Amino acid sequence: MKKYFVFIIILCMTVSVLPQQKNLKYYERKKPEYLDPVYGNKFVYGRRCSSLLFRSLYGYNKSGEFIDLIADGRPKPVDNSNTKFTLQIRPNMLWHDGQKVSSRDVVRSFQILKNENTLYGGKEILKRFKHIASDGDLGLIIELNSPNPQPEYIMIFPILPAHLLNSVYLSESNQFTVKPTGNGPFKIELKEIDKITFTKFDDYIYTIPNGRHTNIEKVILEEKDEMLWTTDLIAGHVDLLVQVPLQQILMLEGLEHVTYKEYPNYSIDMLGFNMRDSSSLLNLKFIREAIYRGFNRKKAVMSAYNNNASVVTGPYPFGSPFYWGEIDYKDYKYDKDEAIKILEDNGCTRSGNSDIFSYNGKKLSFDVIAIQLMSRSKIITQIMADLKQIGIEIKDPIYLTSDHYSSYLSQGKFDIAWITPNYNEDFDITPLFHSKSSYNFWGYKSSTVDDFLNKLAQTSDPLMQLSYGHQIHQKIHEDIPCFFLWTKKKYAGYTRKLRVFDPHPLDFFQTINEWELRED
Questions:
Q1: Cβ 394 vs Cβ 384: under 8 Å
Q2: Strand, helix or coil at 277?
Q3: Which residues contact 462 (CB under 8 A, 6 or more apart)?
């Protein structure tokens, strides 16, 4: 009996000194279909996963300061032309399969991303490069099409493993997009029906000043209905909510074991008007203006988001240096009577007992598509009610899954579409608004905007960038290709066990090496 008693004591002592596994569980509304940094970035939940798995040449820290990631220092000019540079890759950086990250990965990534069959949204930035070539295993030679004294600011495109990608382009059906091999601090361990488990990559080279490596061993993504998020956090079923539903934020007030933190939101909500069909009534600016005047955005912000959002006037979100705030001289503010007057002054009439206006015999009746979210359905219901009061009909909305929604957009199967672009570090709106871009889903064309976007891409002078950005904001606001709605505030909810936590405003998990999870 004594022998067994001693054994139990020794066993208990052994268990007590074993290191405790520190797992971080977080929720998403949807598990990403793609995890690579090209197609995964189509939606914000994919971008979050991508920021666990991949690093680019350069990036921004949580304070907005430019930092080296894969690159080992900044590009060095070859001559005084500011068009040719050399650059070194950080030595001993590895892909998750143990292969070394090399200059060939950068060159191959550049070739794949600029291929017309790769649906990469940053192609306009790639056009600034004339040529990128290897110079040994770690060296690069970079040539630009026009002078730029700081080319690192445009070298933020994704870096992919050359040894795993044999095709000249990357398609959505490529197996790599589903279970990619990255070079970041975490790698994919297990992908299940409604869950993905990422494990710490111990050979990841630290790229932050203090050299800390997080004590989090696993990050577990679980797909969950948003209605359960906050109650599950309070109950201890989850450690982190990447975005607490705004209607539920008050549930976390005053609790000792959980809390929340606001972080910047570089996205805006907008309604895009489809003008690809020249016969569409939405090609008439006065109708787009009437819609703008007829919907009470501030009332929607209050009712749907408890006032945790701010109305915007153009394509740039708060936080962007190009955001111009309220454009007082011509802001399309809510005014029901003015909206009706605009329609009547331009020849719209009501026939018989109809409450809906017609123009040249065509009824002002439009459909709207959106991804199914409770907050959006509530707002679209208000849009329908508000616009009916000014004589414009919004037919029953079409709510779609993210995949079907993307298909509807690309095929132009909509009149009005709810979109929420999430901007990258340089707030590049070129893919959405340049007339030659394949991502300009609504067919907006403005030679003035094209010219300013091209000039913005070609200058590194901060004052000129600011000037071009403000003029772009002003011109797009005047033309109304989109109905700009608001920027929502973002709050991450988390357990107090996560005692060092700072979400990155653009790539949520980019700063995870600085996080620390307390022992239970």
A1: yes
A2: coil
A3: 321
Closest CA to 330 of 473, 449, 465: 473
DSSP 229: H
Question: What is the pTM assigned to this prediction?
Answer: 0.75
Query: 3-class SS at 506?
Result: coil
- Phi, psi values for residue 502, rounded to 5°: -145, 100
Any idea of the CA torsion for 447, 449, 452, 457, to the nearest 10 degrees? -110
| Number of residues that make up the chain | 520
Instruction: Report the Cα 129 to chain-centroid distance in Å.
Output: 24
Contact 200, 186 (CB under 8 A): yes
Per-residue pLDDT of the chain (520 residues; tens, 9 = 90+): 444 333 333 333 333 333 455 899 999 988 998 999 999 887 888 889 999 999 999 987 766 677 889 999 999 999 999 999 999 999 989 999 999 999 999 999 999 999 999 988 778 788 889 999 999 999 999 999 988 888 888 888 999 999 999 899 999 999 999 999 999 999 999 999 999 999 999 998 865 545 567 899 999 999 998 889 999 999 999 999 998 988 788 899 889 999 999 887 778 899 999 999 999 999 999 999 999 999 999 888 888 777 788 888 888 877 677 877 666 556 678 999 999 999 999 999 998 788 999 999 999 999 999 988 777 888 999 999 999 999 999 998 999 887 788 889 888 899 999 988 877 666 788 888 999 888 888 899 999 999 999 888 777 677 888 889 889 999 999 999 998 898 888 899 999 999 888 888 778 898 898 899 986 5
Whose CA is closest to 292, among 483, 509, 55? 483
Residues linked to residue 504 through DSSP beta bridges, in sequence order: none
Write phi, then psi, for 218 (nearest 5 degrees): -135, 145
DSSP 475: H
